[in-house]
Write a structure and sequence with these properties.
Chain lengths: 309, 180
């Protein structure tokens, strides 16, 4: 068994077999994370560069922890401390880093397509940690891992993803990945926060939250990016909460075992009521735990055999 | 080696473990993925029945994939399988069970993997077949049968739980014929 993909750029076009292999491997790494000694020696001698051109705390420390728990050597590169500020191009940056003999690159960048671009100018294995409005594949994988852990399967489950769909690479990766796994995904948000060309995602899109929630096994709330309020995509936080915020009363109308998810960070009381975020149905902290396991699985499966590259 | 001979070998190993472990209070049997798991379960069941233990002997499953020494040289990653040791091995006497002892590299990986689960009082090794050609200073405490092989041959065990029958096969890797 091994992956068909050589890099993890997104979940669009990734096969069901590959997703299953990553999720099964992640379950094994979850076991490692439950031990007293949470480190395995597997990636000893491998250097992984975390190339972050965008602020991120959770994703970056999750990757860094995954690398450390695999005994790889992480190297953190953030834009504020780098020569990017001196005008160096992306291609030059990556080729300079590669000249220092590194094996893998985890990249986050505000422009869609940067991870793909990097595969064209380096031999290192590339893992996408979020590119522009495109994809965030490890987030979608950890979401699927968490759902499978809680509900025992993926196939046939109904998922409502609610919020700022337009700006969400999490929604896009989940739409593609979950569709491949035979799940029924509905994307929902205010009309101003829905993408225009939704056909390519291949899943239903609606601005009617009741329609999206009807019969859902999983409800995933996305962060309202409050900084976007100035661009007048929604009138006020209050109005957003009234129409698209998920609260205890709505939870009471859902299936008893419904799974409530959020990729974080949460605006408590805006897209998700505080008491729902802390309820027994919420798996938000499981998502964070599983994130490390899923990233370990992806790095392990993509990283071996240096002679191959 | 047929099913009967295999069963006799496991019975003998079970007796030997019993002889060396006294009251079995701290003893646990850990099988290595994949065939070793079933051999471990059979040995544990035999010992439990021999002594008439009130509760069955503790058994665990160990996968050594993440501790292998050939990760960098392989093009394909071996599948990570289940590790399930549902008890604390610290201060226990662990009997590690594998089907075939060859180079010793898998056992080296298993020792490292076990140590990351706790600090056992001692670790012993039981193997059904010792086929020689060790590359590391490792030996077994309990051996079902020693056989002479050439390094190019492959020794392969079938167990009824996985393969539908109990048998041992010695094969030429070139595929020039095989014999039971």
């Amino acid at each position: 068994m091994s992956l068909q993909i050589q890099h993890l750029l997104g979940l669009e076009g990734v096969s069901r077999e590959d997703i299953n292999l990553i999720l099964d491997t992640a379950d094994s790494f979850y076991g490692v994370l439950q031990r007293d000694i949470k480190v395995v020696p597997t990636l000893r001698g491998k250097t992984v560069v975390n190339l972050f051109y965008e602020n991120s705390t959770r994703t970056r420390i999750s990757f860094e922890l995954a690398e450390k728990r695999l005994s790889a050597s992480p190297l953190n590169f953030s834009v504020s401390t780098s020569s990017v500020n001196k005008g160096e191009s992306l291609r030059d940056t990556i080729q300079n880093i590669e000249a220092m003999k590194i094996d893998m690159v985890v990249v986050r960048h505000p422009c869609a397509g940067v991870p793909y671009f990097l595969t064209q100018c380096t031999n290192a294995v590339i893992v996408n940690a979020g590119d522009g409005l495109h994809e965030h594949p490890t987030q979608a994988l950890l979401d699927m891992m968490t759902i499978r852990q809680k509900l025992g399967r993926l196939e046939g489950l109904k998922v409502a993803i609610i919020g700022d769909i337009f700006h969400s690479r999490v929604a896009r990766s989940n739409a593609w990945g979950m569709k491949t796994m035979g799940m029924n995904v509905t994307l929902c948000g205010p009309p101003t926060l829905l993408p225009q060309h939704t056909d390519s995602l291949g899943v239903p899109v609606t601005d009617d939250i009741d329609e999206a929630l009807d019969g859902a096994d999983v409800v995933m709330l996305l962060r309202v990016q409050l900084e976007r309020q100035s661009s007048a995509v929604f009138p006020s936080v209050h109005e957003y909460r009234e129409r698209y915020g998920f609260d205890l009363e709505m939870l009471s109308r859902m299936k008893k075992e419904v799974v409530i998810m959020h990729p974080g960070p949460i605006n408590r009381g805006v897209e998700l009521a505080s008491n729902v975020a802390d309820s027994d149905n919420s798996v938000i902290l499981d998502q964070v735990t599983n994130g490390v396991a899923v990233r370990m699985a992806a790095l392990y499966l993509l990283g071996g055999g240096s002679e191959a590259t | 080696m047929d099913a009967h001979a295999l069963d006799l070998a496991l019975t003998r190993i079970s007796h030997q473990i019993l002889e060396r472990h006294g009251d079995l209070g701290d003893t646990c049997i850990v099988g290595m993925q994949s065939r070793g798991v079933f051999l471990a379960q059979r040995i544990a069941a035999k010992i439990t029945a021999m002594v008439g233990l009130a509760s069955p002997l503790l058994t665990g499953i160990l996968d050594t994939t993440l501790y292998r020494d050939d990760y960098r040289s392989r093009l394909r990653q071996p599948e990570v399988r289940v590790t399930d040791i549902p008890f604390d091995i610290s201060e226990k006497s662990v009997v590690l069970v594998d089907d075939v002892l060859f180079t010793g590299r898998t056992v080296r990986a298993a020792l490292d993997a076990l140590m990351d689960h706790g600090r056992p009082r001692e670790i012993q090794l039981a193997v059904l077949i010792d086929r020689g050609h060790r590359e590391l200073p490792i030996r077994a405490d309990y051996v079902g049968r020693k056989i002479t092989t050439s390094p190019t041959q492959e020794v392969s065990l079938k167990v009824s739980e996985l393969d539908g029958e109990d048998s041992l096969w010695l094969m030429e890797l070139e595929g020039e014929g095989d014999g039971q």
